[in-house]
Structure formats: structure tokens, C-alpha cells
Amino acid sequence: MKVTNMTSNRSNREVPNQFIITDGNTEVFQSYKTTVIKIENGKTYIDNGYPFSKTTSKYASAFLDESSKDIKRKIKSGEYITAELNK
Predict the structure, then answer these.
(1) In three state form, how does the secondary structure of 21-76 look?
(2) 0.90 cut: is pTM over it?
(3) CB atoms within 10 A of CB 48
């Protein structure tokens, strides 16, 4: 398992409390202690607490390299699966 801080697109510095966790074929975006997005076996799961705070949404968009509008569209279409990621 590898844990890294996300980096800011503007300053290229590490962003506190925003993490990317990689473990085999699973990649997770975590904000503070909350799992926000999990990509596993080609499927993208988004915590059913979406939409998140402005800051978490910003980094979720960066993690997926998509706008919030596109994320919402993919949730609605079923391409992204909402799930309880923080049991």
C-alpha cells in the first residue's frame, strides 16, 4: 500500500489532508479521514455523501481529472456508482 498527498495544480506543493492511496488495482481518494472515491477493477465508486464541501469537491475533481458537472452526470447515468465508503 502506498499513501501520497495530492499536489496542488497551482503551486505543485503537497496539499494537507488530501490523500491518494494505492493498493494493487485499487486507488482511493481520501479527504482527512473520509474515503471519497474508490476506483477498483475499472469501476468508480463515489461516497453517497456527494456532493461534498467545496474544497473536497475541488480535489475529487482533480483526482478524477473531471469537472464536478461531469462527475454529477456520470453518477446520474450510473457510470459512477454511489456507495457507503465509510462504514
Answers:
(1) EEECCEEEEEECCEEEEEEECCEEEEECCCCCCHHHHHHHHHHHCCCHHHHHHHHH
(2) yes
(3) 12
Q: Return the bridge partners of 34, or none.
A: 31
> pLDDT tens digits for 37-70?
999 999 999 999 888 899 999 999 999 999 999 9
Cα separation values, 67 from 24, 33, 48, 61, Å = 26, 23, 18, 5
| Domains: count for the chain | 1
Range 64-82 average pLDDT: 96
Query: Which 8-state DSSP code applies to residue 78?
Result: T
β-pairing, 80-83 with 43-47?
Answer: parallel
Grid cell, residue 61, equals 475533481
Whether the Cβ atoms of residue 51 and residue 15 lie closer than 8 Å to each other = no
